[in-house]
């Protein structure tokens, strides 16, 4: 009986240990279930973040491509404007050269006209002086004739 009592005590002790272990097992299973749920939630969030990252990466690539395209278009417009400006500068330089040539020709024409005018003016002065001299001579002759006729009559 003593042995039976000891065995009974051992069995009871083992049953308590079994219950305790079962309770711990249940707690561990609950902890494991919570952790698995947490892991599952984390995996879902990770997948969602991965999709977001992929979407953002595509958007970034599209934005970079768009920016490159805009930069290229801006560069092409700038080159086009520069060419147009250079062409305009060349046209203006050509026009300036033509205008300078024309101005020089006009200066020469003016100087020639002034020389001709001065020459013509001098000729007219000389002729006027000659005419006045002839006029005086004729007046003197007329006066001489009058005096002569007066003396004769």
Detailed description of the structure:
This protein is mainly alpha-helical and 153 residues long. The chain has one helix at residues 2-152. Helix content is 99%, strand content 0%. The relative contact order is 0.02. It comes from Drymodes brunneopygia.
For the biggest sheet, the summary is: none
Helix content: over 70%
Dominant shape:
rod-shaped
- Give the count of helical stretches: 1
Spatial gap, N to C terminus: 215 Å
* H/E series: H
- Number-wise, the strands total 0
Computed CA radius of gyration, to the nearest angstrom: 63 Å
Q: pLDDT average, as an integer?
A: 95
Sheet-strand content, in percent, reads under 5%
Low-confidence stretches are none
Structure class: mainly alpha
Main location: other
Coiled coil: 4-141
Subcellular location: Cell projection, Cilium, Flagellum; Cytoplasm, Cytoskeleton, Microtubule organizing center, Centrosome, Centriole; Cytoplasm, Cytoskeleton, Spindle pole
InterPro entries: Odf2-rel (IPR026099)
